[in-house]
Design a protein that fits this description.
21% of the residues lie in helices and 40% in strands. It is of the alpha+beta class and 284 residues long. Helix 1 (27-41) runs antiparallel to helix 2 (52-75) and helix 2 packs across helix 4 (84-95). The radius of gyration is 29 Å and the shape is elongated. The two termini are 57 Å apart.
Length: 284
């Protein structure tokens, strides 16, 4: 006789999702989770003709999802409880749900999913894999920084007397003075093998209240979800206007912008990156 096992696995880990840390009063989050669990509990499962261990594994997952659904539904707001599909499933669970799972005649393979079919007979085993390789591209959101010590020096006018001013260099920033640049990164992973650590190249677009920057660097990721990027960022900086030199004496008290000019220059850039399930900069 033959034993047939079906596995559906996810090559690429799920992105980080902090919505589960939201306040228990967050009804929208609960509704989303209830709808997800509803989908899990109402789809076909490959149990009937699977081996004993796989059958127990799937049945265990079903039991866990039933408990989660039941608990969330009881604490949900009226919007969730009035959803007829959710209410129907809750009523069935309360009565003691009894579902017979048929062998699914097809798998829906999403992006980055893979299905493994194992056929065993005596001491022989055949393994078939269907699906897609994990995408080498993914988007992450970064907390980027550049050191101010590597930016051009800036100047101010120091009064010499009532009618003359000296162009004087400001004190240099300390080594810990950093410019913060929230950044969106496009990451290309060099290898798509199933490893805990990945390396890749990262291009980014960052902005703060003063500036817009583009960046390019090398990145290292843990499970695709948390990473560090080191590279260069190019953005607008202030430098002394070419018409002036340090210690020049002028007769007019000029503003900062009048003795400086904007230039685009590269600077060292480093960033902590998170791969999230939702754009954190998206308006609610």
């Amino acid at each position: 006789s033959y034993e047939v096992e079906f596995y559906k696995i996810q090559n690429l880990p799920d992105p980080l999702n902090f919505e589960n840390l939201a306040s228990p009063s967050s009804g929208d989050v609960k509704c989303d989770e209830l709808e997800r669990l509803h989908g899990e509990l109402t789809k076909d499962y490959s149990i009937r003709k699977s081996s004993g261990d796989l059958k127990k594994h799937i049945e265990s997952e079903i039991a866990i999802n039933v408990k989660k659904f039941n608990h969330l539904y009881k604490d949900a707001d009226d919007k969730c409880k009035n959803n007829p599909e959710l209410k129907k499933l809750f009523d069935e669970i309360e009565k003691g749900i009894s579902v017979e799972y048929e062998l699914a005649n097809k798998f829906i393979i999403s992006k980055n999913d893979k299905v493994i079919i194992k056929i065993k007979r005596d001491n022989f085993e055949w393994v078939f894999e269907f699906g897609n390789e994990p995408s080498r591209w993914h988007i992450s959101y970064g907390f980027g920084f550049t050191p101010k010590t590597l930016e051009p020096s800036t100047y101010f006018l120091q009064e010499v007397d009532s009618s003359s001013y000296s162009i004087t260099k400001k004190n240099n920033p300390s080594g810990g003075d950093l410019r913060f640049l929230p950044t969106i990164h496009a990451n290309y992973i060099f290898t798509n093998q199933e490893k805990k650590m990945q390396a890749g190249i990262t291009a980014g677009l960052g902005a703060n209240t003063e500036n817009i920057a583009v960046s390019l660097g090398l990145s290292s990721f843990i499970n695709y979800n948390i990473g560090i990027t080191i590279g260069v960022a190019v953005y607008s900086m202030d430098k002394l206007n070419s018409n002036y030199n340090e210690s020049d004496i002028i007769s007019e008290n000029l503003e900062f912008d009048q003795i400086h000019e904007k230039v685009f220059r590269p600077n060292l850039f480093f960033s902590l990156n998170l791969r999230l399930g939702k754009n954190p900069f998206e308006s609610k």
